[in-house]
Design goal:
The structure is a single chain. By secondary structure, this protein is an all-beta fold. It is built from no helices and ten strands. The chain has strands at residues 4-7, 10-12, 18-24, 34-39, 46-51, 57-59, 67-72, 77-82, 91-97, 109-113. The strands form two sheets. It has a six-stranded mixed sheet with strand order 2-10-9-4-5-6, with no helix packed on it. Strand 4 (34-39) and strand 5 form a beta hairpin.
Length: 115
Amino acid sequence: QVPLVESGGGLVQPGESLRLSCAASGIIFRFNTMGWYRQAPGNERELVAKIASGGTTNYAASVKGRFTISRDNAKNTVYLQMNSLTPEDTGVYYCNKGNSPYWPWGQGTQVTVSS
């Protein structure tokens, strides 16, 4: 199993930014496409961004142009820079592999965007 620990969430106002981090243990991290997922209250978990081992990125339409995913394989860490946040970005953010089968999910980090 590969523990995933997300951090960096918080309460921000619309238009502000946050940077999320996800630390993973184990060397297999670097060979996997990694993704950031969001689960808003009452909604299913959705993929918002993913990054391949070589650095190719993909984004959900709702965050494209505002969010940037990156990774540091030496640190086994993946990041999500979130700019121009809106209330619709509120939710618990998780990281995991970019496709199934998934590793066990971490606890996530709460992002709340509210004025």
